[in-house]
Design brief:
Elements (H helix, E strand, L loop, with lengths): L46 H14 L1 E3 L7 E5 L4 E4 L1 E2 L10 E2 L11 H13 L5 H5 L11 H6 L14 H7 L18 H11 L7 E3 L15 E9 L4 E2 L8 E2 L3 E12 L3 H20 L2 E15 L3 H8 L8 E4 L17 E4 L14
Parallel strand pairs: 8-9, 10-11
Antiparallel strand pairs: 1-2, 2-11, 3-11, 4-5, 6-7, 7-10, 12-13
Helix pairs in contact: 1-8, 2-5, 2-7
Length: 363
């Protein structure tokens, strides 16, 4: 989900992409918006992966009808995007790395909504009303009376989205009643399970968070787009979780996240999703006393809505600037606690993007 407002634009037909298509940065074009002065072209900037995937979709994507009636250009299973979640600390290269948030810079991303929605997921909430009351309207369309009636959920109260992301994360397998029911102790708390494994057995190959529950899909206002994540803890040479591996000593591990997203709205949703899962990985790393490593984004149907084309063409001529740093102001590092997070416990430092670009969200 993500915020919006824009105008439709036709796109010419084209061929299916070739298997060896890559996302190498192109020759830079002059940016048309702030920041000023224009930043130099840096072909190694990780945001070019995103920009070049959009170029690839516009140039070679298949024209496909879609659920919303808007129409898209689409590629299936494009190259993964990889974003570093930390960088060397310039003041002390041998100490902990500096956390980084891959918040796209070629347009302003609605950070308060990204964070608010993520904390809403983690809380297990399934009503869009708390978000809307906080000024975050990204779920209002899917929680409206008209929309709920249109998908056969007329028995639901306005705002009751059903067993969506937060419910699956915190109560997977519980019987969903409504958004007001207390589900404490019901179902599988996947968030708690992930943290426990990160702390107790970081070599586990089953550190997985799934929002895809086939038994509940028809009960949801919208089935999950970002549906599956696997977490992996690595250790530096000579290091291990507890020093029990022969020839190693106890060292802090590095946490990476592999996200699979079945449906990827490149204009609005994907910038949100990148930032959201980066933040989630940072939160889990904090709870388990790990360094944040890499976010790897794997996509299924990666698409550009036809009414986003003009806006994205404007974005494509802008040069990325440095991603901001992230400061978590919470004093319980390593506690294993993932509850009661508050927006004021996050500080994003040095976010200086180009100006925002309005795009309409298709519901």
């Amino acid at each position: 989900m993500a915020p919006s407002d824009s105008q439709a634009a036709p796109v010419a037909a084209s061929e299916t992409p070739k298997p060896n298509d890559t996302l190498n940065p192109p020759t830079p074009a002059a940016p048309t918006a702030s920041p000023s002065p224009s930043p130099p072209h840096d072909p190694s900037h990780e945001e070019h992966q995103y920009l070049n995937l959009i170029r690839l979709i516009l140039a070679t994507g298949e024209h496909r009808p879609d659920r919303t009636g808007t129409g898209t250009r689409s590629l299936f299973a494009p190259p993964q995007l990889r974003f570093s979640l930390s960088k060397p600390n310039p003041t002390s290269p041998t100490s902990s790395r500096t956390p980084v948030l891959p918040l796209l810079t070629t347009k302003r991303v609605f950070l308060r909504a990204v964070l608010g929605e993520l904390l809403w997921f983690v809380s297990g909430s399934t009503s869009s009303l708390p978000l809307s009351e906080a000024g975050i309207k990204i779920w209002d369309g899917n929680g409206s009376r008209e929309y709920l009636d249109s998908v056969g959920l007329s028995h639901r109260a306005v705002g009751d989205l059903g067993p969506v992301y937060g419910f699956q994360w915190r109560h997977f397998g519980a019987e969903y009643i409504d958004a007001k029911t207390d589900y404490t102790g019901q179902g599988v708390d996947q968030i708690a399970d992930v943290v426990r494994k990160l702390k107790e057995n970081p070599y586990d190959r089953r550190i997985i968070l799934s929002a895809w529950n086939p038994a509940d899909l028809k009960k949801m206002a919208l089935p999950p787009c970002h549906m599956f994540a696997q977490f992996y803890v690595s250790f530096p040479p000579g290091g291990s979780h507890d020093g029990s591996v022969p020839g190693t000593q106890k060292m802090r591990g590095t946490l990476s996240c592999l996200l699979y997203q079945r449906s990827c709205d490149m204009g609005l949703g994907v910038p949100f999703n990148i930032a959201s899962y980066a933040l989630l990985t940072h939160m889990l790393a904090h709870a388990a006393d790990l360094e944040a490593g890499t976010l790897i984004h794997t996509m299924g149907d990666a698409h550009v809505y036809l009414d986003h084309v003009d806006a994205l063409q404007e974005q494509l001529i802008r040069e990325p600037v440095e991603f901001p740093e992230l400061v978590i102001k919470r004093e319980d590092r390593g506690s294993g606690v993932m509850d009661e997070w508050r927006e004021e416990e996050f500080e994003v430092v040095g976010y200086k993007p180009h100006k925002g670009i309005k795009m309409k969200m298709s519901v």
